[in-house]
UniProtKB/TrEMBL annotation:
Lineage per the UniProt record: Eukaryota, Viridiplantae, Streptophyta, Embryophyta, Tracheophyta
Domain Pirin N-terminal: 44-102
Domain Pirin C-terminal: 155-259
Name of this protein: Pirin-like protein
PANTHER family for this protein: PIRIN, PIRIN-RELATED
Annotated source species: Olea europaea subsp. europaea
Family statement: Belongs to the pirin family.
Pfam family, one: Pirin
Amino acid sequence: MVDIAVSPPAGFPDHPHRGIYIIIPLIDFFLHFHQSHDFMLCLIGFETVTYMLQGAFTHQDFMGHKGTIRTGDVQWMTAGRGIIHSEMPAGEGAQRGLQLWINLSAKDKMIEPRYQELVSEDIPKAEKDGVEVKIIAGESMGVYSPVYTQTPTMYLDFTLKPNAQHHQSIPESWNAFVYIIEGEGVFGLQKSAPIKAHHVLVLGPGEGLSVWNKSSNPLRFILAGGQPLNEPVVQHGPFVMNTQAEIDKTIEDYYYSKNGFEMARH
């Protein structure tokens, strides 16, 4: 996952993707560019989950889909067999958000691309005893997200008031991590040292996550997790497949605008 902050005229112009749906740890990115760029990114074989924390991003792809997500909104994009798109800041100043890449299983890597978009007001929320959570994917406090995930996945945005505590169940076989957006918290064991903002905690096996906010300020963090695919992963830039031969074929498909990239020539 990437924590991004971009100021115009910078951004992520047209780029390709194919094949993703694994959970990759989140990075906090806060970028200010002072020159424009003109390219599109191609993605293949995975999904990207973009969650805006501040400002707005406009997305456009080679199939004609275009839209803008703003503070608190989510775009869940399945690249599948391939998509070429751009992501550009839609306002003045820094635009800040999180982006998670999720790997697709071998059987799903060549599915058709699709989007699921939720504005902030439509993301389910729950609150209890000083703990508030936005359920982007999965379940918390008995509340479920409407987002469909190819692989069982959770993506939860927690805010704990001072002196609040919470335990979130996580299936024991899942991989999961925490990314702290602001504040500091105690995770795992009550006597553990507090962890500050912009750190990632990769969780070990267990029945879930316990967290305490012992500070005088709010604690906000992302908890993301998913069922492991237990498949080989070969990555080449924005192409994520299972074998080197599949990567070589993907590069050929992109270069010759075929097998999902027919629109790339336009």
